[in-house]
Amino acid sequence: MTDFLWLLVALPLAGAALNLILGKRIGEPRSGWFGFGLIAISFVIGFGASLGFFAGTSNPQTIYLFSWIPAVGADAAILWDPLSALLTMIVTGVGALIHLYSIGYMHGDDRYPRFFAFLNLFIASMMILVLASNFAVMFVGWELVGLSSYLLISFWFTKPEAAAAGKKAFVVNRIGDWGFLVALMLIFMTFGTFDFRTIFENAPAMFGVGAGTITAITLLLFVGAAGKSAQIPLYVWLPDAMEGPTPVSALIHAATMVTAGVFMMARSAVLFELAPVSAGVVAVVGTLTALLAAVIAVAQTDIKRVLAYSTISQLGYMVLGIGVGAYAAGVFHLTTHAMFKALLFLGAGSVIHALANQQDMRKMGALRKAMPITFITMAAAWLAISGMFPFSGFWSKDEVLAAAFARGGAWLILYVIGLGVALITAFYMTRLFAMTFLGSSRWDEGVTPHESPRTMTVPLVVLGLGTVFLGLFNTPARHAFEHFLEPAFSGVEQVEGLSIGLISTLAVVAVIVAIVGIIIGLRRYNTEVLPDETGAFWRRALAAFGVDDLYGRFLVAPGKAVADWWASVVDPKVVDGAVHGIAKGAIGGGERARAVQSGQVRWYAAVVAIGAVALVVFLLVLGGGF
Amino acid sequence: MPVLLLLVGLPLVGALVVGILPKKRPELVFPVSLGASTASLAVALYVLWEFEAGTPALQFIEDLRFSTILDMGWRVGVDGISLFMVVLTAILFPISIAASRSVTDRVKTYMILMLVLEAGVLGVFVALDLLLFFAFFEIVLVPMFMLIRLWGSDNRRYASMKFVLFTAAGSAFLLASIIGLAVMTGAQIGTLASFDIRNVLAIQLSGTAQLLLFLGFAIAFAIKVPLFPFHTWLADAHTEAPTAGSVILAGVLLKMGTYGLLRFNLTLFPEAAVRMAPYLAILGVIGIVYGAAVAIVQPDVKRLIAYSSVSHMGFIVLGMFAFTTQSLQGSVFQMISHGLTTGALFLLVGMIYDRTHTRKIADYGGLATVMPVYAGLFLFAAFASAGLPGLSGFVGEFTILVGSYLSFPVMAIVAGSGVILAAIYLLWAYERVFTGATNPKIEGLKDLDFRELAIMAPLVVLIIGIGVYPKPVMDRVEPSVELILDRIESATTYQVPLVGRSSAVVDIEYGEFDVHEGGEG
Amino acid sequence: MTVTVTWYLVLAAALFSMGAAGVLIRRNALIMFMSIELMLNSVNLTFVAVSKHLGLIEGQVAALFVMVIAAAEVTVGLAIIVAIFRFRSSANVDELSELRG
Fold first, then answer.
1. Per the structure, how many domains does chain A have?
2. Rounded (5°) CA angle B36-B40-B42
3. Which of B232, B390, B508 sits opposite A579 (nearest CB)?
4. Most buried among A196, A207, A240, A418, by the most CB within 10 A?
5. pLDDT number for residue A624
6. How far is CA A384 from the centre of its chain?
7. Three-class SS of residue B24?
8. Domain of A404?
9. Which residues are A63's β-sheet partners?
10. What does the alpha-carbon distance between residue A481 and residue A465 come to, in Å, rounded to a whole number?
11. ipTM
């Protein structure tokens, strides 16, 4: 099967091209089914190629396709190991479900084929990112997912907010990409190649733990990851990205693209192992991001914005996992999160769809009866993200926190904060769930909610099953997931496992925290009348503590002022002013000199004669004769 | 067969034929012009096809000496660097001529000027004789001036004059340096002068002489590039020129500057080049950031693209003076790429200008609803220009940055920020022109017709083609830039940084690997 | 008394000075023109004399060149003067300053 891996990129790409050029002819809904079909085939190929890893019989391998930029030794090649296999299955699997969902969700849109073209383009880009066998090709995928994200966020470009959000996402991501780019330059200078395998095999021999070069590389890589995975201080684009259609939010801004940063750092685990300082920075930033985003999520009223901040918060957990050196745990949380967060978004999309594009949770409520399938699947996702036993989120989040706990010392602070975030998470997710499905109905007049069509509910059910059962693959008793990933982290020492007794204690603490959060949430929101949430805290948190305004005031505005000043003062007055000054000087000099050119022939002749005489005298006096 | 003579001569013959076409048959002017430049393109493609890769040697050499005592004449040839400049020129001219259908005023003169311009630019890129080079370098000036002056928009008098004065000022230094160099060469080989670049290459120059000559050449080329702070002519000339003029100006005329730097400054004066490299690289970096920042706030689409050219050309200069194989290859690649992407952007702006006669961003809004295909193409060109991977711009900028970092780390990092700024100015312009509610003034515009799509198609194909598979280009450029580095290393004490030569890039093995063997197990 | 080359040179110098004075002092274009001819021919005389004195042929060649140029110059110059005279009925050069800068 591995001979066909290149199809994972080629098929979606072909789908994108065909839908883009011939989409109008293919028409609705065939273009959607066509796009879905290609991704489904890709999933089958990816799954088939991964079988060897499930069985533990295959070794990782690199597959050469063609030489791309020979000068920097960057080949288009595939690295097929359990990590890329896992991500391939997540991307194509969740991707296929979301394509299916979009067939119903995007029904009636003017640019229906274009939407599927962009979705296919995204899958192709993500596969380039995931399958790359070197940093340069990974960067290609990295930027291309940014492009797809831009196209899809601003899909409804006639809305100015959507267009602005797309641009913001791309530009903020590019700030992170700058860091990634500098990391690449440094990597090439240090190793003379971008190839993962060569770098990871040589790095431990070339550098000791704590080497400055590796610390710089990893910190720069983290800047890139912070952009893509929405960490402090570059997270601001993700909430705005909710302007895109909901399936896009589910696929790109929850399940897959935003996890690219986590994936990239997990891929570079060998380097992070050599740079404990960077790992510490990563862990702290991840924890703080988780905390900040969770607090903001509490006060949001737009259902998608709650989920957006919740995504940032969960990404913080994954980043924390990477930072504490529990790479498999971080990736495990990535996997379960892809399931339950995609489900939450799709469920939210189903609700929004049913309420005629209403996104304000204050105008929802009591949808339990009207939308049974959405209700049940959302309930599973709610419990999973809240960390309830035995749903998938419980296992993965617990794994990350346990790893932080196991490191001991100052890391315990991160554990405590992480636990606090779990409490907040359980609370705000309960708030979302209760405001949407429980309590009294607060719908706008004339709205009659209805369950969504089959194409939309089937993905919900499939993801729901994943949400419930996926966690059981990797329990403290049975580390199937970690064994699966082991070949990808061969050069890396994983965090020591804790004793079963301690793990159980931690798990009980986590569940208690989750239950407390849920109970507080239910008591407050499972009511006929919503509590008053207009206090100072609520207003500030709703405005995301004004971080966007701060950036606007202290970064964007001064930047624009400088550009304005350059364009309106420096360029025309100084640079061009010098040019005009020279021109004026030439003209002025000419004005004076023109008096000499009187037009009088005899004047000219006289000057010539005087000049000749002067020359002769000069030569006679100074030159000592001819 | 004198292939290169044919290459340069065909457009001239075309110009002649257009000139003697009977007044009664104006409909013939366009096909004849297009035919002549297409014929030249065919010759260029033949050269590309027959070009032997893997060697830095000059190929297709023609050597016809006009004067023994001055040792000058028709000496032409191509190597890996000029090859692609020739092909780029030969591609962009038929496209520009095809895009000039909207010209209705004095079509005959217009086409003659275009064809003379083509011959001049091609001549610049193939000349191996300094005097011949200078002659072509100057010939280019005249038709370009006329194109801006006669077919430009409102402020054309000022723009055309500025263009000519700037370039002529540089040319004065260039001519003086060329004559000085030729006389010094002549003195060493026993003639009055020698303009043959192969003779010039062989002579020894003192440090001071090198430095002075280097500066003379550099000023002329820096103005042409244009390098900050010599860039102000560009914004005016680009903005006022007719569409084809802008395309050619940005697409190939600017490359004459960077090509000149590479061909003469780096090759002929290695010692001075090493001494001056940091200063020129800094000017390049300033250009990158400054040009991009100024582009952000431009209210006029053409001006915006003009300043973006300043930024992109800065990358080329930075790569050129970083003296690594990667950065030099990247520079040459970026020259090609910039010609294609900026050419595409100017063509697109021209197409909308033909419809609305305004270039002000504020006059648009929501255009994507009215002209979806046009919007898609514009976005494509914008992203290509902003260096999106998979498209040509990325390969050039990425290779330049990676290569330059080896010599000038700080500058490369600062230059990298140009990537962010490029995203800002292009996407913000796109947002204001294409998205949001449709401005009533542009309601009902027709989307691109078949001719316009046909004009854009080759550029789109090439931008994707060399972006995904740049190897054929890189393979032909590499020996030529390696030769330049060899010369620099042998003439000076300068050493190219460790992995700055292609031979130092680590070989990669592919296939299955057993993880349990190498690791800790 | 032999006529040495010095005599010729003195004569040539005298002729040249007369010509130069004529150009500088007279206002009539035609007379100025004749003065210029005088200067040219004084130079010719120098050329031929020195050529004979040194036994080199180049001086005579140069003289021939000068004569040809002078002839050409007369043709063009007279045509211009005639044209100007027709236009203004005057050949006073002080009244002509169209080429003033």
1. 2
2. 115
3. B232
4. A418
5. 62
6. 22
7. coil
8. 290-537
9. A78
10. 18
11. 0.92
Chains B and A are touching, with contact defined as 3 or more CB–CB pairs separated by less than 8 Å: yes
**How does pLDDT run across A391-410, given as a tens digit for each residue?**
888 888 888 888 888 888 88
CB contact under 8 A, A602 and C93: yes
How far the first Cα of chain A sits from its last, in Å, is: 96
Residue A42 lies in a domain: no
Residue A418 placed within a domain: yes
Is there a domain that residue A37 lies in? no
**Is it the case that residue B382 has pLDDT exceeding 60?**
yes
Kindly state whether residues A383 and A509 are assigned to the same domain.
yes
Work out how many CB contacts closer than 8 A connect A with B.
Answer: 199
Q: Which residue has the higher pLDDT, A25 or A314?
A: A314
From chain A, the residues in CB contact with C99 under 8 A are 597, 599
Question: Are 3 or more Cβ–Cβ pairs between C and A shorter than 8 Å?
Answer: yes
CB contact under 8 A, B229 and A575: yes
Q: What is the mean pLDDT of residues A168-187?
A: 92
Residue B517 has pLDDT above 80, yes or no: no
- Examine the domain organization and report whether A529 and A557 are in the same domain: no
Cβ contact A599–C101 (<8 Å): yes
CB B427 within 8 A of CB B355: no
CB atoms within 10 A of CB A107: 15
pLDDT at A450: 83
The model's pLDDT over C34-58, given as tens digits with 9 standing for 90+, comes to 999 999 999 999 999 999 899 888 8
In terms of domains, do A424 and A556 share one? no
Question: What burial class does residue A545 get, using C-beta atoms within 10 Å of its C-beta: 0-12 exposed, 13-18 middle, 19+ buried?
Answer: middle
Residues A478 and A582 grouped into a single domain: no
Same domain, A495 and A571: no
Which residue of C20, C23, C94 is in closest CB contact with A600? C94
Residues A612 and A467 in one domain: no
- The predicted structure's pLDDT at residue B519: 38
Residues A522, A567, single domain; the answer is no
| Cβ–Cβ gap A600/C98 under 8 Å | no
| Chain A residues with CB-CB distance to C97 below 8 A | 598-600
- The sign one gets for the Cα dihedral B266, B272, B276, B277 is positive
Q: Which two tokens stand for residue B229?
A: 């702070």
Least CB–CB distance from A599: residue in C24, C27, C99? C99
Considering the domain architecture, whether residues A527 and A561 belong to the same structural domain is answered as no
Cα A426 from Cα A82, distance rounded (Å): 32
CA-based nearest distance A614→chain C, Å: 15
H-only helix segments in B61-106: 80-98
* Mean of per-residue pLDDT scores for chain A: 88
- The pLDDT assigned to A497 comes to 64
A471 within domain boundaries: yes
- What pLDDT shows up at residue B518? 42
Please list, in sequence order, all residues whose beta carbon lies within 8 angstroms of the beta carbon of residue A215, skipping any fewer than 6 positions away: A275, A277, A278
C-beta atoms of C32 and A595 within 8 A: no
Average pLDDT over residues A614-619: 88
Tell which of A514, A537, A560 closes a domain. Answer: A537
Closest-CA distance of chain A to residue C72, Å: 20
Q: How far is CA B509 from CA B425, B467, B481, in A?
A: 41, 24, 27
How far B500 CA sits from the closest chain A CA (Å)?
Answer: 8
Tell me if A350 sits within 8 A of A371, measured CB to CB.
Answer: yes
Nearest CA in chain C to A590: C101
Domain ranges of chain B: 269-497
Question: Are the Cβ atoms of A599 and C20 closer than 8 angstroms?
Answer: no
Q: Which domains does chain C have, with CATH numbers?
A: 5-90 (1.10.287.3510)
Share of chain A above pLDDT 70, in %: 98
Q: Which chains touch B (3 or more CB pairs under 8 A)?
A: A
Q: Which of A93, A90, A104, A89 is nearest to A33 (CA)?
A: A104
Residues near A361 by beta carbon (within 8 Å), at least 6 away in sequence:
A301, A302, A303, A306, A432, A435, A436
